[in-house]
Structures are given as C-alpha cells and as structure tokens.
Amino acid sequence: MDKSSFLMVERGNPYERGDIIPLTSKMIILGRKGKQWDPDISFDNVFVSRKHAALLYKNGRFFIKDLNSKHGTFVNQERLAPNGERPLQNADSVALAGDLIVLSFSILSMDETMDITPLMKQMAVVEAPGGVKLDPFKQELVFGEDVYAFSEKEYKCMEMLIHHKGQFVSKEQLKLEVWPERSYSIGEIPDVSAEELNALIYRVRKKTRHILSIESIRGKGYILHSKD
Fold it and tell me: Which residue ranges carry the DNA-binding annotation (predicted)?
C-alpha cells in the first residue's frame, strides 16, 4: 500500500462534515454498531446495516463491496448489486442507505500529503446566493470580511435556508436535514420538539441578524431573506 488513501465525510453521524478517515487495513467493514458488534467504521443511523459494506485492498487498489445491506451501497449514485463490488477511483462518491451516509474516496501520493489540508479547505468553500460563501469543513459562513461560525446542526439549518433563499422551507424539511439520525424509517419525520427547532432557529437568527433575516410562516416553516 504505497498510497495514502482515505475517506472524507460529507454526511454521516457521529462524524462531522470534513472529517478524514484513513484507510490503513486491507479489509475495512463499514456498518452500524451493535451490542456484540463494532465495525471498523461505524455510523449512527438505523438505515445502515450492522455489516453494510467492506473496503477491500487487493491488486494495488481499493474495492468496495456491498455486504447484502438492506438499503444499499452506492458508488457515484449507482447502486451495487447485493454482495457486488467494484474498484474505487480517486474522488468517487460512496453512499450508504441512499444518501444518508455520504463519503468521498481519495488517493493521495505521499509527497502530496503536506498540501492536502489547504487544498481541501480551498475546495470546500462554496459560493452561495446573496454574495455569501459557505465553508462546510469549518462550518462557517463568510460575508465580505466577516466570518460567522456555527455548530454542526446550526450550519445544516443555515445552509439549507441559504440554498433555498427566498423560498419556503417547511419545518419537516429542516427536521429531515438537521436531525436525520432520529428517523426510524425512510421518509419518516424525525422526532424533534417544537422547542428544539425554535431554539435552533433562534441561535441561527442571532448569529446572522446583521446580514440575514429568517421569516417565520406560522406553524409551517421559514423563508430566508438577505438584508440590504
């Protein structure tokens, strides 16, 4: 194994977006922890099978294999056949259970290792409507020279509202985006109290009050506006 390979987390509790998971073994099991089972890479999501998928290093490269998972293993949005496998290439997207767990596979030559952090940070910054920039790795919003930092759930909430700027976002949509770990079946609205959601919106409003306005649609959802 003369390459440094890793997974970069885009979505997947308990990891935060941007976390790096080095791949240092020839067989790595991805799944969900049980009372008598602890996979090599574990995710807190009921749609992830105990033994969901495996990363296998052979013939000088990594392959991903579905382990007959209930909700599927996907590479670049294509579902593998049950117990099927395919080789991974640099920048391939790997998803478990639809898009509830999303990872990016990367291969980095050893002489490039020192430059990976600034490179990832540069790639992470995303232009958003209204002249703001979103940095999912730092969980920050940048507007001009001002930087606004958020917790993981605050960032998910703010990110969704910004990407739907001027559009109605229902409370159900926000719950699904911010609290996916609380769903127990596909499409089920997470069990989130009104107090929790209101507190989250309050914190996001407070942090962005000088540049953004979050309009409440009573009992239904929210619309984000820019402050001119």
Answer: 124-226
Q: How far apart are CA 167 and CA 150, in angstroms?
A: 22
Q: What is the pTM for the complete model shown? A: 0.55
In CATH, the number for domain 125-226 is 1.10.10.10
Topology of 4-114 in CATH? Tumour Suppressor Smad4 (2.60.200)
Per-residue pLDDT reduced to its tens digit, 9-58:
988 888 887 888 999 899 999 999 988 899 999 998 888 999 999 999 99
Residues near 22 by beta carbon (within 8 Å), at least 6 away in sequence: 4, 5, 6
Q: Break the chain into its structural domains and give their ranges.
A: 4-114, 125-226
Determine how β-strand 41-42 pairs with β-strand 27-31. parallel
- Tokens 């033994």 belong to residue: 51
Contact 5, 108 (CB under 8 A): yes
- Paired strand residues for 217: 221
Cα separation, 160 vs 149, in Å, equals: 16
